[in-house]
């Protein structure tokens, strides 16, 4: 029975070593391919740079043109949020206003001496 346990341990160790070898081979191949393709990648960046600059400039101009519209939308949204938060308080404000009117009507005005 112990032989099967040792055999399983050896098999698992072999699989781990095989995986490590595969990992190192994969990393090595990736590094070699990356180094071989590096000049082409640099050339592609060099050729694409003017288009990237033009695209960034256009995006900046469009963003600056959209800024006032975004500010107006944010202001309207903030106003709507404030109104929606204070709308449930309207009945209480009405009751307070009615009480204030009743108290004001019941009190006598103070005479002012001149």
Q: Any descriptors?
A:
single chain; about 110 residues; mainly alpha; elongated
Protein described:
By secondary structure, the protein is mostly helical. It has one domain (2-106). It contains 2 helices and no strands. The protein starts with a helix and ends in an 8-residue tail after the last helix. The model has no long low-confidence stretch (mean pLDDT 93).
Average pLDDT level: 93
Helical amount among residues, as a percent range?
over 70%
Content-based structural category: mainly alpha
Q: Count every helix, treating DSSP H or I runs of 4 or more residues as helices.
A: 2
Q: What's the alpha carbon Rg, rounded to whole Å?
A: 39 Å
N-to-C CA distance: 118 Å
Question: How do the strands and helices of this protein lay out in sequence?
Answer:
Blueprint: H1 2-86, H2 90-106
In short:
The chain is mostly helical and 114 residues long.
């Amino acid at each position: 029975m112990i032989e099967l346990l040792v055999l399983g341990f050896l098999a698992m160790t072999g699989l781990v070593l095989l995986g490590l070898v595969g990992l190192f081979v994969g990393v090595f191949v990736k590094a070699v391919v990356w180094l071989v393709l590096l000049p082409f990648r640099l050339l592609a960046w060099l050729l694409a740079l003017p288009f990237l600059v033009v695209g960034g400039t256009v995006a900046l101009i469009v963003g600056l043109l959209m800024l006032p519209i975004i500010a107006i939308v944010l202001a309207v949204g903030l106003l709507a949020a404030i109104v929606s938060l204070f709308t449930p308080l309207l009945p209480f404000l009405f009751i307070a206003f009615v009480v204030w009117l009743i108290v004001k009507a019941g009190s006598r005005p103070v005479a002012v001496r001149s």
